[in-house]
Amino acid sequence: MSSRIASDEGFITLFHRLPIACILTRVSDNEVLAINPAFEQLFGWRAEDIISHSSADIPAWSSQQQREQLLETVNREGRIDQFETRFRCRDGELKPCLLYAELIDVSGQACRLLMAHDISDRITSEHALKRSEAKFAALFQDSPEPYMLFEKQSAQIAEINRSFTELFGYQAADIVGKTALEIGLWRHPEKRPATIAKLLRDNRLRNEPIDFVTQDGHVLHCEASSNFILIGDERRTLTSLKDVTEQKQVEARIKHQAFHDALTDLPNRLLLHDRIHQHLALGERHGLSCALLFFDLDHFKRINDSLGHSCGDAVLQEVSQRLLGRVRRADTVARLGGDEFVVLLTGLKGDHPQVAEQARLSAEQLLHAVAAPMTIKGHNLQLSCSIGIALASQHGDTPEDLLKHADTALYGVKANGRNSIAFFEPQMQIVVSQRLQLETELRQALVEQQFCLHYQPQIDARGQRVIGAEALLRWQHPDKGLIGPGTFMHVLEESGMILQAGHWVLLQACHFIARLLGECKLAPDSFSLSVNISPRQFRQSDFVAQVDAAVRESGIPANCLKLEITESMVIQNIKDTVSKMHELRAMGIRFAIDDFGTGYSSLSYLKRLPVDLLKIDQSFIHDCAQEGNDAEIVRAIIAMARSLKLELIAEGVETAEQLAFLQQQDCHAYQGYLFSPAVAEEPFLQFILPAQSNIDAHESR
Ligand SMILES: Nc1nc2c(ncn2[C@@H]2O[C@H](COP(=O)(O)O[C@H]3[C@@H](O)[C@H](n4cnc5c(=O)[nH]c(N)nc54)O[C@@H]3COP(=O)(O)O)[C@@H](O)[C@H]2O)c(=O)[nH]1
User: Which residues form the GGDEF domain (predicted)?
Assistant: First the structure.
């Protein structure tokens, strides 16, 4: 401290105690008069390094230019606030400082008091902030997620990033300064106030589902997350968006698939159930009724089996379109699977008879719609269908009951010949339960082997010789005794159990032939056993292999086995049938056309078939001796067989007159009650052991 200012004691004390670094210089010659301890401590300089030197010479200034600038301002204006510079410390470090300088009078001398405030921390944090702002800017711009920055107050867009531009198509120049509403970003602007309220309440948004619209008008399903942030002094809303459009579409697809049939895209059972539920509730409220129409395409399996599944699928699609085309928008057409469709007619008004009448009229229209000819993959088809109807409240109050009762009514239509409609009636349930009971018992019968074969002899009337037999299925029911196939064959067919039963029959028949040839010493050329083959059995892709295996396993000559098929079976899929017949024929298996005369009886298809024998149907035999139409038909069949060089056998021959007529026409082979009904294995053996003596014995009875 210079002696010339030492007398101003109050100032000196204050000067030395000030916690801020101070330096005092004389204006007239710029000589440094004093520095305080805070100065020494901050910059490391000692008093002797500084005091008495001209301020231009002191080493603390890092820039003379700045020093002169500062002095000039202070001299001119008497003071300077916040002059930023760097002071060199004794150890060489340049320390950022904020300088305050003022002209003061100290003991009558004009002096400059310069105070230096260390701003190293502020500069460091400013740098850190700058770095973090730069990082934020880089993150914001380069983020793969679309980002938007809004002015908090005005909600104007302040910035968008590249990903936002890529996703939405907007360039920053197009939208900065505008609100999302102004540019039409919201798909549902009416939802914005609630979303903003939520943001303000929670101070953030997390994965808020919002639909936006892109610049070119596409809808984007997004999840938006928002936070308030401070950038500089500005309060901003930072919003990141997650585009979940694809995810939503996948979810929607999965949901759609869960409630719709994949082939026709019609509602499935689940959705139908839901719709029935809704309409029952609505109906109750508004006094309206609804009706359930349960559809089944008649003999649809034949289309699948004969023309293939892709054709069957196309038929189902065509039927679904026809049904959709005939109902109102409020009605539902559903597919439950296979060839089962359900139509839910809704909004039916009036009392019970009026509602029933509306349902009946609609059902008839739908029946006709299905029955109109259709061309599927080049095939001209004409279908028919059966419809069972259940009416809400009259026939059920729940979806389950209505579906069950419409199905029961459908069963009633099918039992009465199909191609028609029927309303549910309580007694129909008895028929359904009986049918179910029969099906259950038949399954049990297959497991417990309650089936057996009976054999009806086939005779050559010229020598009364047994030339063969027809194997006929019987069911040895544990309570009801022996049951003929007329009672259960259709159930085996419809349920598919015929495949297992038919295979069993085939094996049994082959083993029976083996016993006849082995134990009874029958000559293979003198006897054949006929086995009835059901259409479903024949259509199996491995049918030929099954027959081959049965023949091989039993070790019989293949020509002892004769397969009986019907004309209708051949017609259903002539290509496949003929090819299988040729394969089996090549193995030595023989074929008979059963019930001949009742079907197409066409020469043209008969010529194409590898057939050995025609069986004249018993319906023509019954009255053939009366010389009426049946006699003519029998004559025509015999002539046809002769021209095609086919064997013949008449079935159902019950009287000597019938046999005499047949023999007059040169048809000598027959089977029927006249000789014997079908009998069990043991009695059958009596006819052929020894063959001739048994026939004699039979004649003498
Ligand atoms: N797929 C299979 N179908 C089979 C099998 N076993 C039988 N069937 C089919 O059932 C139909 C009925 O058979 P069934 O009740 O045994 O009747 C046969 C004879 O008993 C009966 N018949 C024989 N002679 C007479 C007669 O003089 N009068 C008269 N009223 N009926 C008589 O005819 C039936 C044999 O007919 P068909 O088969 O046309 O030769 C039967 O039609 C078979 O289709 C089987 O294992 N698999």
Answer: 288-426
Asked if residue 587 and residue 520 are part of one domain, the reply reads: yes
Main-chain phi, psi angles of 35, to 5 degrees: -130, 155
532 in ligand 1 pocket by Cβ < 6 Å?
Answer: yes
Name the CA dihedral angle for 631, 635, 636, 638, rounded to a multiple of 10 degrees. Answer: 140
Q: Is the Cβ atom of 49 under 6 angstroms away from ligand 1?
A: no
C-alpha distances in angstroms, 175 versus 149, 181, 409? Answer: 11, 11, 66
Chain centroid offset of residue 80 CA: 80
Ranges of the chain whose pLDDT falls below 70: 1-7, 600-601, 690-701
Reported pTM: 0.61
Amino acid at 275: R
Query: How many angstroms separate the alpha carbon of residue 87 from the centre of ligand 1?
Result: 123
Q: What is the tally of structural domains in the chain? A: 4
Look at residue 601 in the predicted model and tell me its pLDDT. 66
Distance CA(352)–CA(355), nearest Å, equals: 5
Residue 622 has which token pair?
Answer: 């019954």
Strands 79-88 and 94-106: antiparallel
Q: How many CA atoms lie within 13 A of 378 on its CB side?
A: 2
Domain boundary among 118, 152, 171: 118
- ipTM given for this complex: 0.94
Does 652 contact ligand 1 (Cβ within 6 A)? yes
Domain with 225 in it: 124-248
> How high is the pLDDT of residue 336?
96
Predicted local distance difference test score (pLDDT) of residue 690:
59
Partners of 390 in the β-ladder = 292
CB 672 less than 6 A from any atom of ligand 1? yes
